[in-house]
Design brief:
Cobalt-precorrin-4 Transmethylase, domain 1, Rossmann fold, 5-stranded parallel sheet, 4-stranded parallel sheet, 11 helices, flat
């Protein structure tokens, strides 16, 4: 069946974004400086392979700062945390290294600024996601989460209430635009962030998939199931009528998906190392597919410096 596939088309850009590169390198450099036994709160990024690789180097992943022995080193994940996490970490004497993506930090800063100016903040995002938990923890009592148009329609505020909104950085660009339009219709004076909160990498990867869709019969997205931006890529394909599947690596491919398929599109979420894309390419080569090409090549030039706590220690 797989011999029916004649071409594998790779989306570009795909894979690691600058925030993920920074977070992973932060853990790697911390291990170089302090040795095996560096603790990481939550998954540093939402990818099981990245976590496994860092565990092999000596990183220890924990769910909570209370799980880190007093006085040890702890790295915070790229998704950001609430101020209460810093407070508890300080109380335990932890050496804390903050690997929060600067674009997530921007959302936190904007939320605090809105609240300080007397605005009640509406956060568009997904309940339970680490980034959302951190953002809501910045201004407890002054923020509400909405996940859908139904949530927005149910909102009610006193007359004259000052409102503002922020968004999770890894949402569907199109769906979020629709929710923002609805917020503005319901609350015409609502304040917006100075710049869109959805990060450049999320937007670029969604745009790259859109450009593929007219040329493919099947979309494969490499990414872990708890990766918001990877899940959005799958949803984008399905909403366009293209069969789309999320997989951790090549072992997740079901050959039944390939029945009647001539061109397969392949992309990867922002937390996915390129080696996993190469492994999927090798999977297709082993089944006779020789036409493997990038749809187009786009290079992202964004770079973020390592956390200050690390830069102070590095030579």
């Amino acid at each position: 069946m797989s011999r029916m596939v004649r071409k594998l088309l790779l989306a570009s850009p795909r894979g690691y974004c600058a925030g993920v590169e920074r977070a992973v390198e932060t853990v790697e450099r911390a291990l170089e400086l302090y040795g095996a036994g560096v603790y990481v709160r939550k998954q540093i990024v939402h990818n099981v392979h990245v976590v496994d690789d860092l565990e092999e180097l000596g990183a220890i992943f924990v769910d909570d700062e209370e799980d880190v022995p007093e006085g040890e080193t702890m790295v915070l994940s790229a998704h950001g945390v609430a101020p209460s996490v810093y407070e508890r970490a300080a109380a335990r004497g932890l050496r804390t290294i903050d690997a929060t993506c600067p674009l997530v930090t921007k959302v936190h800063v904007q939320a605090r600024r809105f609240a300080a100016e007397g605005h009640f903040v509406i956060l568009i995002g997904h309940a339970g996601h680490d980034e959302v938990v951190g953002t809501m923890g910045e201004i407890p009592g002054s923020i509400v989460l909405v996940e859908s148009a139904i949530d927005i329609e149910a909102l009610s505020f006193p007359e004259g209430a000052k409102l503002a909104y922020v968004t999770q950085t890894t949402l569907s660009v199109d769906e979020t635009a629709g929710m923002i339009a609805l917020l503005r219709r319901r609350f015409p004076t609502i304040r917006a962030p100075r710049r869109d909160d959805i990060c450049y990498a999320t937007s670029n990867r969604q745009r790259a998939v859109k450009e593929l869709l007219a040329e493919i019969d099947l979309l494969l997205v490499i990414g872990s199931h708890n990766s918001s931006n990877s899940t959005r890529l799958v949803e984008l394909g399905r909403k366009s009528g293209i069969a789309s599947h999320l997989l951790d690596d090549e072992t997740g491919i079901d050959e039944r998906w390939l029945e009647g398929v001539e061109v397969v599109g392949l992309t990867s979420g922002a937390s996915v190392p390129e080696k996993l894309v190469l492994r999927v390419c090798d999977w297709f080569r082993a089944r006779g597919v020789t036409d493997i090409a990038s749809h187009r090549f786009v290079e992202e030039g964004t770079e973020f410096r390592l956390p200050l706590e690390l830069r102070r220690q590095l030579p």
